[in-house]
């Protein structure tokens, strides 16, 4: 069943109250007609040019996006609900919209409203919880009624919380104090019509949207800060033990808790909060490779229009981070925009980084390291700036960082061949080096003129700028690390190959938590039907009283490295499995485990590893120790503290003939991959 997109329903409430109520009631009548007479075709279609529909319904911002999410399909001047759209999904939207409309139409008494300009998120251990958000606008959002359904306002994207957990989630409504264009409107200081320089000023102004205090409060409330902080503290403890055991004298090797929190934020953002979009799937046949037929602009927003089965779907490419907190999907532009903002929510000095090589990411200032750290949320990669040049094989020419107090040419961090970089710039016609330096100086002055800084703070900013310039120059000739030699993982294989960015792999290492150390056990399992890993502690009798300690969405989220692997869904047979990518002869996937950090070793190990082969194909399992030795005997891991589990897929007459973890799409409580370890 399709997921209820509550954010789209809530987004309607930013419209004037009277217009919102009229539009919501109009949509509710349409949905009621469909639910009451599902076989009556006339109730399933509305004409866009109908004056009543255009004025009462579609004039409200966000209504069309909501209707498309419900199941309406735009075609030939109409919005139609196809007969294959599940009525249960229509009912869910109808019920949630009705509840929200009633709350807006008949708000609670004034004493129940939070003071203007604040965001309150309340957690409760009971079956009820409440939250209220109001803004300086006249369209205040009323407090939630204390019911179980109204508690489900905004859950973190990808959340696997149980119903009980959902009832105690912090509730919040995303709001900013001003519209997007008002948040990024500043006097222009760059004269002329140079395309590159004008784009720099546009991006410099755009990051100022992050500084809206009400929006910062909304964003902060969406981050599971306690959970991420606990993980960061656990990692710091592990680091301290590791350094102590190695008798290291250089205490600068020890990371700060804030740096480790940044790692956890990046991993959470990629695994649970944001979703990558290659193309919008067809609502009729399920095709995930729909055709892009055109790009348009609606109300200043670029829109990609996809077509399949004679129907159109619209993908809105928002720059407004308030919208992105609601949709939580996109490509690298949306990812970097939203992630940089969430870094600001946690108080980091953060930059939005733009490259003319068609990619964007983030940089975050590390107080511990006293330098800017490269962070790519799409890849879940930190501090590997040369990966674009050496892993993705991109030609780096211009890269710029934009923050609330600075603009910097950081190209020199992302290439180690500065001579060739200068040659490319001279051969290009973007602008002269003199004009570029002049523009950056003007933009830096513009940004810092708006700061409420003491002379001492301004002096520190200037020193940081000078130190960074020296650091960038010293990057010439630096040897790339192993991580920087890897290719790209975000986006579909086809999309990456079209861009010349060969497949890559995310890295994750299983390290025991404090609870696992105390229990002397480690357990991990994966369900291909839900595409979710579960880390858990066993009770006294195996699954009796077992407790799940972590969930992670996506088969790649807990792998260490892989090549030519993807998750296949068979729409006809209703089966799912991991297989080689189409057209490849072999593939590998690895999971990495390190118990030695805590001074532990394997005492006993059990492994379930589902595999299917056809037409002579092979799936081979190898257990690789830290010294590089490998075996196909599971018993070889006994008394081992660190190892890698590697699966190799090859042979057969087709890429589909070697499969991992094949199971029915409905088998959501079965785990074809499970590892249980007793530690000592």
From TrEMBL:
GO terms for molecular function: metal ion binding; peptide-N4-(N-acetyl-beta-glucosaminyl)asparagine amidase activity. It is an enzyme of class 3 (hydrolase). It catalyses: Hydrolysis of an N(4)-(acetyl-beta-D-glucosaminyl)asparagine residue in which the glucosamine residue may be further glycosylated, to yield a (substituted) N-acetyl-beta-D-glucosaminylamine and a peptide containing an aspartate residue. One of its GO terms (cellular component) is nucleus. It holds the Pfam family PAW. Residues 484-680 form the PAW domain. GO terms for biological process: glycoprotein catabolic process; positive regulation of BMP signaling pathway. This is Peptide-N(4)-(N-acetyl-beta-glucosaminyl)asparagine amidase.
């Amino acid at each position: 069943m399709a997921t209820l997109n509550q954010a789209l329903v809530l987004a309607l409430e930013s419209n004037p109250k009277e217009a919102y109520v009229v539009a919501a009631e109009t949509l509710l009548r349409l949905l009621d007609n469909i639910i009451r007479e599902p076989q009556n075709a006339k109730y399933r279609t509305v004409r866009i040019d109908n004056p009543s529909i255009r004025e009462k319904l579609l004039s409200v911002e966000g209504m069309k996006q909501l209707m498309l999410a419900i199941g309406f399909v735009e075609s030939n001047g109409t919005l139609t609900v196809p007969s294959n759209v599940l009525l249960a999904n229509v009912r869910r939207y109808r019920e949630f919209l009705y509840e929200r409309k009633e709350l807006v139409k008949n708000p609670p008494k004034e004493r129940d409203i939070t003071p203007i300009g604040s965001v309150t998120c309340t957690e409760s251990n009971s079956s009820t919880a409440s939250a209220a958000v109001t803004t300086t606008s006249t369209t205040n959002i009323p407090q939630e009624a204390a019911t179980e359904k109204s508690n489900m306002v905004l859950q973190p994207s990808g959340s696997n919380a149980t119903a009980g957990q959902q009832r105690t989630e912090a509730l919040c409504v995303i709001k900013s104090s001003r519209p997007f264009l008002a948040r990024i409107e500043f006097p222009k200081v760059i004269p002329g019509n140079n395309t590159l320089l004008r784009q720099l000023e546009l991006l410099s102004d755009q990051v100022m949207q992050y500084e809206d205090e009400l929006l910062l409060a909304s964003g902060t409330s969406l981050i599971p800060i306690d959970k991420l902080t606990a993980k960061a503290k656990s990692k710091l403890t592990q680091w301290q033990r590791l350094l102590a055991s190695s008798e290291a004298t250089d205490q600068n090797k020890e990371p700060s808790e804030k740096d480790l929190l940044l790692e956890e934020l990046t991993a959470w953002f990629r695994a649970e909060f944001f979703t990558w979009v290659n193309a919008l799937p067809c609502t009729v046949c399920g095709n995930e490779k729909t055709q892009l037929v055109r790009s348009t602009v609606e109300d200043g927003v670029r829109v990609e229009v996809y077509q399949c089965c004679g129907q159109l779907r619209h993908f809105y490419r928002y720059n407004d981070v308030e919208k992105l907190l609601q949709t939580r999907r996109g490509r690298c532009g949306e990812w970097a925009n939203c992630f940089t903002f969430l870094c600001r929510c946690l108080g980091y000095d953060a930059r939005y980084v733009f490259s003319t090589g068609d990619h964007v990411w983030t940089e975050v200032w590390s107080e511990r390291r006293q330098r800017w750290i490269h962070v790519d949320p799409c890849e879940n990669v930190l501090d590997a700036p040369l990966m674009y040049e050496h892993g993705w094989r991109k030609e780096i020419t211009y890269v710029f960082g934009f923050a609330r107090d600075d603009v910097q040419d950081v190209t020199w961090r992302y290439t180690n061949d500065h001579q060739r970089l200068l040659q490319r710039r001279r051969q290009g016609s973007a602008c002269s080096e003199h004009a570029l330096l002049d523009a950056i100086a003007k933009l830096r002055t513009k940004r810092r003129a708006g700061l409420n800084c003491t002379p001492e703070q301004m002096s520190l900013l200037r020193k940081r700028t000078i130190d960074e310039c020296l650091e960038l120059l010293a990057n010439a000739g630096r040897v790339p690390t192993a991580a920087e030699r890897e290719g790209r993982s975000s986006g579909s294989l086809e999309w990456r190959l079209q861009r010349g960015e060969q497949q890559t792999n995310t890295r994750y290492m299983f390290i025991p938590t404090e609870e696992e150390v105390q229990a002397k056990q480690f357990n991990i399992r994966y369900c291909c039907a839900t595409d979710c890993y579960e880390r858990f502690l066993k009770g006294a009798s195996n699954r009796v009283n077992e407790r799940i300690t972590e969930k992670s969405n996506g088969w790649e989220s807990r792998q260490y490295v892989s090549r030519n692997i993807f998750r296949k869904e068979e729409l006809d047979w209703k089966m799912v499995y991991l297989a080689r990518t189409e057209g490849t002869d072999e593939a590998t996937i690895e999971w990495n485990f390190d118990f030695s950090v805590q001074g532990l070793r394997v005492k006993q190990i059990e492994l379930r590893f589902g595999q299917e082969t056809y037409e002579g194909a092979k799936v081979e399992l190898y257990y690789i120790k830290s010294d590089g030795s490998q075996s196909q005997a599971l018993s070889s891991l006994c008394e081992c503290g660190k190892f890698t589990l590697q699966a190799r897929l090859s042979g057969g007459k087709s890429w589909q003939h070697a499969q991992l973890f094949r199971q029915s799409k409905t088998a959501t409580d079965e785990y074809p991959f499970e590892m249980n370890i007793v530690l000592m």
